[in-house]
Amino acid sequence: MSKKGSIFIIFAQILSLFAPLSGMTAPNKVPTETKGERTIRMQKDREVLKSLVDAGSNLKKSHVIEFHFVGYEKAKITAVAEEGKKMGYRVSKIDSLNDEKNWKYWYFDLIQSVIPSEKSIFSHTEALTLLAKKHAVEFDGWGCLIVK
């Protein structure tokens, strides 16, 4: 192997060490969830489903679910919105606010009518978590109105 090729491999290895810190993924690396992240996501999904049941929502009926995304770079948020649209979701208006440090952030929802079973919600939140990771933004959960 040439010296130039060795330097590239070392650079790529160093880059992959810092990727988690910067929100980037290594080239051609598919974003994944850790076991702990998956457990927390599924627990939060179950909590929302339980809240819906406790509020009297009929989980056998379709609900218009809003899946929330937040990020500090509009281009990344826009990329998630565009990819979400290709995945069959409707896209809400992308808007911005300032956080407590007065930094501007962007947010929007991907929207789809879903019968909110545990299986269907887990499927959506897993796919959208990976989409958010791919674009280095935050998937911030989901919500919907009560359906009687």
How is this structure best summarized?
The chain has 148 residues and is of the alpha+beta class. It has four helices and five strands. It has helices spanning 3-22, 35-54, 74-86, 118-134; strands at residues 63-71, 90-91, 95-98, 104-114, 138-144.
Could you characterize the architecture of this molecule?
The protein contains 4 helices and 5 strands. The protein has helices at residues 3-22, 35-54, 74-86, 118-134; strands at 63-71, 90-91, 95-98, 104-114, 138-144. Strands 1, 2, 3, 4 and 5 form a 5-stranded antiparallel beta sheet that branches. The model is unreliable at 1-26 (pLDDT under 50).
Shape: globular
Low-confidence stretches: 1-26
Give the distance, in angstroms, between the N- and C-terminal Cα atoms.
67 Å
Average pLDDT works out at 87
- What is the CATH architecture assignment of the largest domain? 2-Layer Sandwich
How many separate structural domains? Answer: 2
The total count of strands amounts to: 5
Indicate the proportion of strand residues: 15-25%
CATH third-level topology of the largest domain: Alpha-Beta Plaits
What is the multimeric organization of the chains shown?
single chain
Q: What is the chain-wise order of helices and strands?
A: HHEHEEEHE
Contiguous helical run count? 4
Radius of gyration: 18 Å
Class by helix and strand content?
A: alpha+beta
Instruction: State the share of residues found in helices, binned by percent.
Output: 40-55%
CATH superfamily name of the largest domain? RraB-like
What about the largest sheet? 5 strands, antiparallel
CATH class of the largest domain: Alpha Beta
